[in-house]
Amino acid sequence: MLTLLTAMYIVVRAASSEADPIRVLVTGAAGQIAYSLLYSIAKGDVFGKDQPIILVLLDIPPMLPVLDGVVMELQDCALPLLREVIPTDKVELGFKDLDAAILVGSMPRKEGMERKDLLKANVAIFKAQGAALEKYAKKTVRVLVVGNPANTNCLIASKSAPSIPKENFSCLTRLDHNRARSQVAMRCGVPADAVKNVIIWGNHSSTQYPDVHHAMVNVHGKEVEAYSAVKDDSWLKGDFISTVQLRGAAVIKARKLSSAMSAAKAICDHMRDWWFGTLDGEFMSMGVYAGGNSYGIPEDLIYSFPVHIKNKSWNIHDGLPINDFSRAKMDATAAELVEERDTALSFLSQ
Known about the structure:
By secondary structure, the chain is an alpha/beta fold. It contains 13 helices and 14 strands. The strands form four sheets. It has a six-stranded parallel sheet. It has a three-stranded antiparallel sheet with strand order 7-10-11. Strands 12-13-14 form a three-stranded antiparallel sheet. α2 crosses α12 and α5 packs across α13 (324-348). It starts with a helix and ends with a helix.
């Protein structure tokens, strides 16, 4: 009898100690990036192996039939952490009580569309989503903007949700970070996790600056500076940078579709680090609010910096020496972001 009571107590205690589900929104949820992303979130790769999830899938009305198929697939995966899947085209439901929001959906650039037209369309989208976050989401929500132009879309969303801290908004440059890390690793003949502290500075665009002046490579158990490990300065200052900058276009040319698998992996990496923190001695690249930065970057921007994260809060890694080569490239990508911001803000006020 005692054994039975003890067993019942253990079962009841285990049930009562289970974490409450968190609500995670993915927009553009019927698209190909989301299709590569949702399984990893739902099975615990991002928010933890003991964290129940409520997945909220938002898309535009014409995509709802596709979304029904995505919901069926998620159900058919029989994932123990997935408590509920909510497909919707309604912002009041999609943004309600969120713990995390991954804003994948945006207006893609179409043939013949000028850059300012693309910005105008996305300002309208992310102004509305920022307002929805302001009205319906938790003030502690962590927001990751993926849809391009990601930096400026993130800034518009943040400005449209003034009661949510600016520090709760970020945009995805982890894909570029992973690309840079992988290129160095392949060049050195080591696994990707043997390379740490690469940096993506600036915009998630072809002006971004992949910087390895502070990166370290573990070669045969010994950490050495990336420039010493690669032993090819001209490659690091030339083809390496352009390869990372133009990788997205190269994938589109080869696949006839944009990066999906690698983008989904980068989203998972970004959110997992934001949730659980970075390793001691390592920093990662995130597009974050530039206010108070020590690198001379204009403050009212979302700009990619090296950050370290603890207790779900990021801090820019200060004090890195910046040489003239890096300074010029950091300033060039900042100038592009200033132009994007000013154009977007002119639309925001309309």
